[in-house]
Specification:
This is 3-(3-hydroxy-phenyl)propionate/3-hydroxycinnamic acid hydroxylase. This protein is of the alpha/beta class and about 525 residues long. Helices cover about 25% and strands about 30% of the residues. It contains 13 helices and 25 strands. Helix 1 runs parallel beside helix 8. It is globular. The two termini are about 45 Å apart.
Length: about 525
């Protein structure tokens, strides 16, 4: 019997490894069980958002991944006759990372795999096939075949990160709610692309065979084509069929060695009925499956792992209980479902083949684009809405407010300068746990020892032009300090960089009293 651990994670895809690394960075002993013995080499997901990079920065892989990614990309939507209907690029990120990036999943998996293997608080068990799962009020026991022998792994908590065909989800009896779209697509990933393309994903709804084109760096290119009902998936993935799709429209000739992957898929639109069962939780594709058209699948999974990891860490420290853990589903399931709906709607626009419907689609998009507010909404990709956790583990504001800071929303990450004159993002000064920022005010007033009890890092944020001392940073351009008054305003930031509370000195007691309903351990320190 292996040593009892705080958390066992089933599945070492990107989401499972992100969850394990975040837990381990917080001092939580973690075992991760993975059937494969090497990192995945298939280029599945290809789109990342700024929030995912924010998490990757916390676990130390952001810079290496950016070096091999196509940063600051947009999307173009084409209609009949390959006429451009809309060009969209996300609004400039306020989180300190590119708003949208095209990346290569094998590179991400290798970076995460190496970091997971090297982490002293992670027991990484490869070649482990999970065969059973039981739980009681004290913990979970996972049965697995490891190196041909049956073993049992015990832990206080379990995370199911084992993909769309999740064994954990099935063992827990959790159903997926939703549908599967009837259209099938073939995805072809190519290497050594000779054409230098603009940094845009292209969605071509030509009314004949809709397709998607996504460029990458170092000669990578993804092509996806919708299949017709009478086309056989096996026949469409043969070298001859792939060549017919690619040549001559996209290449003069195709070397078979340049085909990294060719596979047929159907897009599911499903969300787990619940994300939690007792001491077990679902993240990533185990919790939700969505069409690829909005590029949200992996990003939603990273958000899941980031949201759940800090809450489990608080529980493992003895500072929280079920009320905090229950906010995982409250915060994540609605947004996961929302992104699934957006992905489905984008797919419906692209996949039309009816001549009347596609002409009507093109005319509607052109007409709507004449309305300035609608054109701005579409061109800035504001249909990809960020999460709002205001119904979760936060404190509603009453006595204070700051421009651009919203409770339940991600904290902006401005560029700042510290006492040593070093410039960088604010996140580097926040640590891995809670943070208490002071905005405005001449000096930091005395605040409750509650903040020390929860391990909050205190940082005073100064307006541009001020000289920061130890424990202070000055913004290079006004972001958080914009509109701040002479009295101090405090911003409590959760470990996942979401704003938990905004308050003035007079509101501190109320905020602490509400937080104590989520965080139980610090209550004796008034």
């Amino acid at each position: 019997m292996r040593a009892h651990r705080d958390v066992v994670v089933v599945g070492a895809g990107p989401i499972g490894m992100v969850a394990a690394l975040l837990l381990a960075e917080s001092g939580v002993t973690t075992t991760i069980l993975e059937k494969q013995t090497e990192p995945g080499d298939l280029p599945r997901a290809i789109s990342l958002q700024d929030e995912s990079f924010r998490t990757f920065e916390q676990i130390g892989v952001a810079d290496a991944l950016k070096a091999e990614s196509l940063l600051d990309t947009g999307s173009r939507y084409f209609g009949l006759g390959d006429r451009l209907l809309l060009e969209a690029r996300p609004t400039a990120s306020r989180l300190g990372h590119p708003a949208k990036t095209q990346f290569d999943q094998p590179i991400l998996e290798r970076l995460l795999w190496e970091r997971t293997l090297a982490h002293p608080d992670i027991e990484f068990v490869r070649g482990a096939e999970v065969t059973g799962l039981v739980q009681d009020e004290d913990g979970v026991t996972v049965s697995a075949v490891i190196d041909g022998a049956s073993e049992q792994i015990t832990a206080s908590w379990l995370i199911g990160a084992d993909g769309g065909r999740s064994f954990v989800r099935t063992a827990l009896g959790i159903e997926l709610e939703g549908t599967t779209q009837p259209q099938r697509w073939i995805v072809i990933d190519l290497a050594n692309e000779p054409t230098v393309r603009d940094p845009f994903a292209e969605f071509h709804g030509d009314g004949q065979r809709p397709f998607v084109l996504v460029p990458g760096v170092d000669g990578r290119l993804r092509l996806e084509f919708m299949l017709f009902d009478d086309e056989d998936p096996d026949a469409m993935t043969t070298p001859d069929a792939i060549r017919d799709l690619v040549v001559p429209r996209f290449r003069d000739h195709l070397d078979p060695a340049d085909v990294r992957r060719a596979a047929v898929y159907v897009a599911h639109q499903r969300v787990a009925r619940t994300y939690r069962s007792g001491r077990a939780f679902l993240v990533g594709d185990a919790a939700h499956l969505m069409p690829p058209f909005a590029g949200q699948g992996l990003n939603a999974g990273v958000r899941d792992a980031t949201n759940l990891a800090w809450k489990l860490a608080e529980v493992c420290r003895g500072r929280a209980g079920d009320r905090l853990l229950d906010t995982y589903e409250v915060e994540r399931r609605p947004h996961g479902r929302s992104m699934m709906v957006v992905s489905r709607r984008i797919g419906a626009v692209v996949m039309g083949t009816n001549p009347v419907a596609t002409r009507l689609r093109d005319a509607t998009v052109r007409a709507l684009s004449l309305i300035p507010s609608v054109r701005s909404f579409l061109a800035n990709m504001r249909f990809i809405t960020p999460p709002d956790y205001s119904a979760g583990a936060v404190v509603a504001p009453e006595d204070a407010a700051l421009d651009g800071v919203a409770v339940g929303r991600a904290l902006s990450q401005p560029a700042v300068r510290d006492a040593s004159e070093k410039e960088g993002g604010l996140d580097a000064h926040l640590g891995l746990g809670w943070s208490l920022l002071q905005i405005g005010g001449d000096s930091q007033p005395a605040v409750s020892p509650f903040w020390d009890a929860i391990g909050a890092t205190r940082v005073r944020v100064l307006a541009p032009g001020h000289a920061p001392a130890a424990g202070e940073v000055a913004e290079t351009t006004p972001v958080l300090t914009a509109g701040a008054g002479p009295a101090p305003t405090f911003v409590l930031v959760r470990p996942d960089r979401y704003v938990a509370a905004v308050f003035g000195a007079a509101g501190e007691t109320r905020v602490i009293d509400t937080l104590r309903t989520f965080l139980t351990e610090p209550s004796p320190v008034a």
